[in-house]
Amino acid sequence: MSDIFKAILISRDKEKNQSVDIADFTDDDLMDGDVTVAIEATTVNYKDGLAIKGSPGIIQRWPMVPGIDLAGKVISSSHNEYNTGDKVILNGWGLGQSHYGTYAARARVNGDWLVPMPENMNSMDAMAIGTAGYTAMLCIMALERHGITPDRGPIIVTGAAGGVGSIAISVLSKLGYHVIASTGRASEEAYLKDLGATEIIDRTELSEPGRPLGKERWAGAVDAVGSHTLANVLSQTTYGGAVAACGLAQGYDLPATVMPFILRGVSLLGVDSVHAPKELRLEAWSRLASDLDMAKLASLSTTIGFDDIISTAHDIIDGKIRGRVVVDMATDA
Ligand code: NDP
Asked: What atom in ligand 1 is closest to the CA of residue 274?
């Protein structure tokens, strides 16, 4: 008989009321796949918070083990690219939504979803980055592909003290950009400046309905917030600039006008991490290994154990989490 291990399991009853429990699993309970991974670390992302809180549209199959990110070691594989003992990372691909996710000691997955762990990283580093950090990198790569360079002008990062925001600031500052951080937490000014933000603005400057075009203030943006914030970011982007949009912390609406697009040639670049193709993932993880200062990564992350995941998931939606949270699965799992 295979070992018993703990998994967080989200279920719902006939009335669609959701419950979150800790279940005993064995390998037989895992879903189909050609690689089984012993999960050494995972993390709590905003999307994990939404899943555990029961927001509609996140979980697509019940019951579900939530958790969208893993780092760990291959324990069995029939996939031609992976062998027992290989260190791997997985972000997205429906884990924790339509395929059993990472809040369990093991996951069985499609090997095509994995990326090899970069050489200078361990599982804890990789999950301090996690989907939030890998998405921040995808946003920066999208801006670069659009021709945005440090000499074009400042970059604004919204949702600055959150996971995407903190990693975006760290990478952009290492690349030489002048970074403007938009935050609702004035108390985090020193933290954001330590990460590399040059200027801090209060998020209320951007979160209310604004004018179709404003003063040109930044050449680019990494926006994790959406709604009026994204509309105002667009309206204050300089001629020919670009905004990478990845999040909806304020809302999924976009109450904007076409004016920044048709009068200033501003581009809105959509960024999705879940189904991003493998080449892009490999590029993003390789860039993170070279362009993210590991000392800053340590300063922006907090470590918790398996038993803290559920309460932390509630905290992230309530805006109480700064930077990134790593779940050390060697603790309590
Ligand atoms: P976090 O919760 O860590 O950060 C979100 C930040 O947004 C908060 O820290 C806060 O920053 C800001 N914020 C929260 N509520 C509001 C509000 N009502 N108005 C304005 N700002 C607000 O989440 P992540 O960084 O992990 O994710 C950020 C967003 O990106 C989420 O919407 C998430 O779903 C999305 N995302 C999308 C991905 C994709 O593939 N497209 C992948 C990963 C994340 P502060 O305190 O500084 O104001």
From this structure: 40
